[in-house]
């Protein structure tokens, strides 16, 4: 059995334009998540908070590292049920919204792959997952957005996506009637020594070279998260900005816990005293 040592940091800011922070995050090793809510006050903020609560429940209850995809699917399904029920209750109460409560989600969990520790990464919507290894930044997730579909179809260039008038239109999210269909990625820890989860309030305000520079200059993940969010606000703060940064700082072999052997060892150290 191998034990993974992690360090993490998290930060969030309402930004300069929005009145309510509809982002939520969870950083409870070995489970990390960022959710970017939609639907306004008592809509998006509630939806994203549900994601944080459900992934927090997963972290508290634990999961089989070899079957983590099923655990995440179950957690997302629970989020979907709660968000849909909340939206339906608001509709019954006559609350009018341009769109019902919903949220994106990106998540990172420690798992086992072929007997070795690895990252399980999941995304739904346009929040992003990056990995930063050996000074190189790579976007792992693919945005579930209209502009990403246009880029993939060759109808617009990638550099046009950041300023496209429909750049905020997402094609998948929790709360949508079509259901939950997340993307999943499994990466060996050596290929993702630092992982960044962020809302589009960060990735939409900072280009990849800027994100890479911040991650390279901030050795402590707490500083990295703080600096990314602060930079996003300075760059305009047009949306809520949230970042969770997780570092793999060590992996070591540990023996399976043997209660009888541990008791005997303790008795020996105490000289047989009870």
Explain the overall architecture.
- The chain has 274 residues and is α+β, with helices and mostly antiparallel strands.
- It has one domain (2-269): PPM-type phosphatase domain (Phosphatase 2c, domain 1, 4-Layer Sandwich), CATH 3.60.40.
- It contains eight helices and eleven strands.
- Strands 2, 3, 4, 5, 6 and 9 form a six-stranded antiparallel β-sheet that branches. Strands 1-11-10-7-8 form a five-stranded antiparallel β-sheet.
- Helix 6 packs antiparallel against helix 7.
Structural class: alpha+beta
Write down the domain tally.
Answer: 1
CATH superfamily: PPM-type phosphatase domain
What value does the Rg take, in angstroms?
A: 20 Å
CATH topology: Phosphatase 2c, domain 1
**CATH class membership:** Alpha Beta
What is the second-level CATH architecture? 4-Layer Sandwich
Q: How far apart lie the N and C ends? A: 31 Å
Q: How many strand units?
A: 11
What is the N-to-C succession of helices and strands?
A: EEEHHEEEEEHHEEHHHEH
Largest sheet: 6 strands, antiparallel
Defining traits:
single chain; 274 residues; alpha+beta; Phosphatase 2c, domain 1; 5-stranded antiparallel beta sheet
Short description:
With 274 residues, the protein is an alpha+beta fold.
SSE blueprint:
Elements: E1 2-13, E2 23-28, E3 31-38, H1 44-61, H2 68-92, E4 102-103, E5 105-113, E6 116-124, E7 128-133, E8 136-139, H3 146-152, H4 158-161, E9 183-188, E10 194-198, H5 200-203, H6 208-217, H7 221-234, E11 241-253, H8 259-269
Antiparallel strand pairs: 1-11, 2-3, 3-4, 3-5, 5-6, 6-9, 7-8, 7-10, 10-11
Helix pairs in contact: 1-2, 6-7
